[in-house]
């Protein structure tokens, strides 16, 4: 499987990233271990998590996903086979991007992950209250100490990302090499400005909500199907007129190319020139095989054109 380089100086990853927000939330530890085993057995290597995962789940407080990954790494001994991505700044006990918060949070993440370094460490949420030179200086010290290999920014506007890149250059500090925006067939806002900044500066891009919280799997046909679903709160906004039309087109394309809607939605993302790899989650081995199959699906030009038209905001 051909790997893709994350930015100019980031690691090489397979064309799909496993989203670890499900670990110890909708997938217990035993299931999570099986999913991780299958993921790396199939030649994939990038795992995304965050200190805040999955604090929103019933009975959870955050840190659970990192803990599961750390337990798996300790049991399987496969640290050198994976690219670990985690984040700081969104979790209530370590909120924001002050130097003190970053310094404390990274050590806690390293302890939970049971490793001595993080391959990609993301600023999970922009923090306008802390000077960028303080935030980037703190990240730079982590790079110098060997605790972090590469820096990333999630949930940043194009304007703030440009500003951060300029601060890094002006102060001789490590820059954000990778960004993590929301991006999928339904939500195309990444394309308006952020994609241009990424391409201009040679940044790697890994997208979250790549399947729109499961909407683009075709599993849910109406709002009524969401009742009792773990992701009900994430999914409500997709079932508008445009979303339902898009879902209909997605199913038709999937039938034509003999694939699943999830595979088509992910393969469309993999075809986008500004994207390095989408992030997707699975809670069963069947779902895992489904999303991994997207990496082997080459959509014909006609299918890409139909999806492009259906996914436009003016469609």
Describe, in plain words, how this protein is organized in 3D:
By secondary structure, the protein is an alpha/beta fold. It is built from 11 helices and 10 strands. It has a single domain, classed as TIM Barrel (Alpha-Beta Barrel), CATH 3.20.20.100. Strands 3-4-5-6-7-8-9-10 form an 8-stranded parallel beta barrel, surrounded by 4 helices. Helix 2 links the parallel strand 4 and strand 5. Helix 1 runs parallel beside helix 10, helix 2 crosses helix 3 and helix 8 crosses helix 9. The longest helix has 17 residues. The protein is globular and about 50 Å long. The two termini are 35 Å apart. The mean pLDDT is 94.
Features:
single chain, 315 residues, alpha/beta, eight-stranded parallel beta barrel, two-stranded antiparallel sheet, globular
What is the element layout, followed by pairings?
Layout: E1 4-5, E2 12-13, E3 17-19, H1 29-41, E4 46-48, H2 64-76, E5 83-88, H3 99-113, E6 118-123, H4 132-145, E7 148-154, H5 158-170, E8 176-180, H6 194-201, E9 204-207, H7 232-235, H8 241-257, H9 261-270, E10 277-280, H10 285-292, H11 301-311
Parallel strand pairs: 3-4, 3-10, 4-5, 5-6, 6-7, 7-8, 8-9, 9-10
Antiparallel strand pairs: 1-2
